[in-house]
Amino acid sequence: xxxxxxxxxxxxxxxxxxxxxxxxxxxxxxxxxxxxxxxxxxxxxxxxxxxxxxxxxxxxxxxxxxxxxxxxxxxxxxxxxxxxxxxxxxxxxxxxxxxxxxxxxxxxxxxxxxxxxxxxxxxxxxxxxxxxxxxxxxxxxxxxxxxxxxxxxxxxxxxxxxxxxxxxxxxxxxxxxxxxxxxxxxxxxxxxxxxxxxxxxxxxxxxxxxxxxxxxxxxxxxxxxxxxxxxxxxxxxxxxxxxxxxxxxxxxxxxx
Length: 256
Fold this sequence. Notes:
This protein is mainly alpha-helical. Helix content is 82%, strand content 0%. The longest helix is centred in the first third of the chain and has 109 residues, at 5-113. Residues 110-128 have low confidence and may be disordered.
């Protein structure tokens, strides 16, 4: 049986309708997927920016922590130095007063034995006391004050003058230590190395010997004496295992 033309048109339209509906549905789904992908990309971009900002903040924070740690180490060293200096000064002061008392007793005895018509004060001028610790202490405090004020060129000169003028002073070992530290700041690593080596050779029981050894290792590293620097770090770990210097030495040895 033959179909009329009108029926054929209607039949074609009915067959095409589901196809168009399917195409519309696919386009709608694709658009939704594209919207979701755009949102995901936007979220990833925001997350990346936040991650980068957090990483930069962490790096900055770590730098600040390292800086504070260095400052704390310097303050701790200065406090130890002040405490040690006070102990030395107290001991020298006690010795000085004991000696002064002895001298006064001696003069009183001598004066009592002099005839009354003779006035020893008119014929004798008391010389400056070579054992008076005051000039020595002032010279050391001046040099150390220059170091604390970060005037390292002047500090180097003052510490050298102090060591030359008072080689037997109780402060001479500390003078060698701070002299070396001033030279490190001035990047005179060869000179600093010499100061620490003299200190450790002549005063092996110096209360900051571990720190002096660590600074000596740093000088050797800067002078490209890597093997010697490594040996010095190992010496710190062996000889001063509980010290802060030993902890820092282990980290450096572990990083090699």
